[in-house]
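Case study.
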Amino acid sequence: MPGFLLFATLTGDTAMELFLKIAMAAVLVLLLFRLWPAYKHWQESGRKAEKGDWLAALLPLGGVVLVVILLIVAARA
Amino acid sequence: MANTDYTLMRGAQAAISANKVLKNTYMLLAATLAFSAVTAMLSMALQMPPMIYIGALIISMVLGIFVLPKTANSASGIGVIFGITGLLGFGLGAILNIYMALPNGPETIALAFGGTALIFLALSGYALTSKRDFSFMGGFIFAGMMVVTIAVIANIFLAMPALSLAISSAIILLMSGMILFDTSRIARGEEDNYIMATYSIYLSIFNIFISLLQILGIMGDD
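After joint prediction, the assembly is written out as follows.
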């Protein structure tokens, strides 16, 4: 899943690269078959959010967004 | 009185067990990250072509999906996880060489590395000190991962930079949530296999680093 996007945008389509792309897509489809039961398990029997839970989760994720923005500013400087 | 003592003892034992899994997880995580760094440097020194990244990714995903879950309860699981992380590091080295060749490439890599470390340490510290139960995020995170995986499959063949940027942004948020989710589960004793815990956190860190490289590479005009 991670960063094969870099590969897709940086290289052209030779036969080997096309084969690797198809193989990657196939493995990702297999990953989907592993993710689905995990999703079902957590959706059906996972703990439901209580008051204040989502705020406690969104605050640090907001911090992550801020860090990424600062990194982009630093990269463009 | 005897029942209270027994209950207290069981609670203390559970806490000790959770702390042991936490310690083992972080020790194994440090070792696998270091091993990845070594294989990445080896790959960079050997000037491996970018194609190696995809090949390494495919093999490590197959190992992670089919082999690791079967070996995680035995000593061979340690070998498998080092194999997976070594492969990912080796593939990463090929990508890092591409960035090193770009203007401001080394700075981009350094920013992505620092940002990843900061995000991981901050989120882990928050999850451990707040002692909150983030398991309610499980359904949302796995649903998000399925959506992103479908987008990634589409973008393998479409190769749209705007979609790549959106996917990378989504991956950073999902993997950050995953760090909170995994760390709280380990701290509460809900995850007792430190090999699988290490694998999950390692993948979160790896995905965040790769996604940051992608975003900073595009937004930094490289």
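Observations recorded in class. Chain B has a mean pLDDT of 92. The helical segments of chain B are 2-45, 51-71, 76-100, 105-130, 138-158, 161-187, 194-219. We will return to this complex in the next lecture.
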